[in-house]
Amino acid sequence: MSTLTTGRSIEFPRSLADSTAGAAQTAAIAARLERLPLTSYQRGLFAIIATAWFFDSMDLGALTFVLGPIKQTFGLSTSQTGLLSSMSFLGMFAGAASAGLLADRFGRTRVFQVSMIFWGVGSILCGLAPTVQSLAAARVLLGFGMGMEFPVAQSMVSEIIPARQRGRYIALLEGFWPLGFVASGLLSFAVLSLADWHWVFILQGLPAIFVLIVRRYVPESPRWLASRGDAAGAELVMSGIEQKILQKLGGGTLPAPSPEKIDVRMSRGVKTLFSAGYGRRTIMLWCLWFFALLGFYGLTTWLGALLQAKGFPVTKSVYYTILISLAGIPGFLTAAWMIEAMGRKATLVATLLGAALSCYFYGGATDQTQLIVAGLCMQFCSFGMWSALYAYTPELYPTHVRATGTGFASAVGRIGSLIGPTVIGFILPTAGQSGVFALGAGAFALAALAVLVLGEETRGRTLESISH
Fold it and tell me: Closest Cα to residue 318, out of 418, 427, 200?
């Protein structure tokens, strides 16, 4: 066993002797990032990534509010509507699966920018679609861009924010999803009062121009550069970050870095996800993502249409869906506190079980008051679950496969997203709304069970100590 000392020991098997210099650089960069005080510079980077996430979330949430009008425009059956609503999730599956591999090979910021172009163009094409077939194709393209962006954004934030605040900031990042969802509802409400649903998609595609801000201000992850053996590039970016932080602090010196012991593995890509130490995590995450997203998207995509089936007009159903979704804002804020106070595992189990119970009561609601109260609880827990899910996933893999692991977990979840709305479209005519929400409750409960049995706690630990 050879040892290279930099603060604390960094150990490698002899078979990896050629990787010693790269491993030392990786450990040193990680230690320099972890010791940085959190300033307005990191918060500014977070704000840029979160703003792109917000615009993306608006596009993702739009179908909830316009699915009913689209169904009427094209004269779709319930099963056809379910298939159409699943098209974006088909694209998200492909986008999430490919984005992780691409981001681990070509860099976080490049893939992040490309994803924004895809969802922007896809949204505008949705607005211009003259037939249901062209709309379905545009939804696949839109979903591909969204599927690319989400896992890469998680990796970017997790790699620039120190461990002591990492979970909270990734949870806050996910909080821009309910904000985008509500904003999409407000936009839909305003547009549908004046024009048809096409304009909702066109207007929501225009913010993709924000990619120019990302390109100008967001640097590549120095952790990723170091893990790829680009010592010069990692040093250049890291020095630039340190200089900007010193400027924000008004001068002085930064604390001394203290590198941790890390393990450098020769294998890269998908096979690492099932290697020793990671297989259990991967199985847990895939089960969690699959069942959580099956339940969430199966229900959320249909919320507006289900309210219309209860006799509410289009604008009224949009209004109630927005009202219910507002609970997601305190939901993600509560989760952002819980994941640091109680831990990721406890927060996930609590929010998933809360969502399951809320679904059960929502499906059995007999009057408007019960419907809204149960809906508020359901969205409070669901969006809280999202925050914990996004905070937890990228922490469980090392830098060289972090985006790959996150992307594939997300891709498996998109299979659940794809199945959920489609299955509901088929079972709704026979099982009714109570059966639909029983399906959602069962999916959330199975996700909670996977975390409870297979999950491990990561609160307060650096990415390197978790990953190795």
Answer: 200
Q: What is the dihedral of CA 322, 393, 353, 317, to 10 degrees?
A: 10
**Residue 357 burial (CB < 10 Å; 0-12/13-18/19+)?**
middle
> Locate tokens 């990032």: which residue?
33
Q: What's 14's DSSP letter?
A: G
Half-sphere exposure of 199 (CA within 13 A, CB side): 10
Of 189, 214, 209, 168, the C-alpha closest to 61 is 189
C-alpha to C-alpha distance for 339 and 350, rounded to whole angstroms: 11
Burial 76-94 (b: 16+ CB within 10 A, else e): bebeebbbbbbbbbbbbbb
Question: What does R_g of the chain's alpha carbons equal in angstroms?
Answer: 22
pLDDT in tens, 418-436: 787 778 777 777 777 777 7
Domains for the chain: give ranges and CATH numbers. Answer: 18-253+268-467 (1.20.1250.20)
pLDDT surpassing 90 at residue 131: yes
For the entire predicted model, the pTM comes to 0.76
Give the distance from CA 101 to its chain's centroid. 16
Which tokens go with 103? 């981001």
pLDDT of residue 260: 67
The alpha-helical segments, DSSP class H, found in 274-343 are 279-300, 303-309, 314-325, 328-341
Whole-angstrom distance, CA of residue 321 vs CA of residue 379: 10
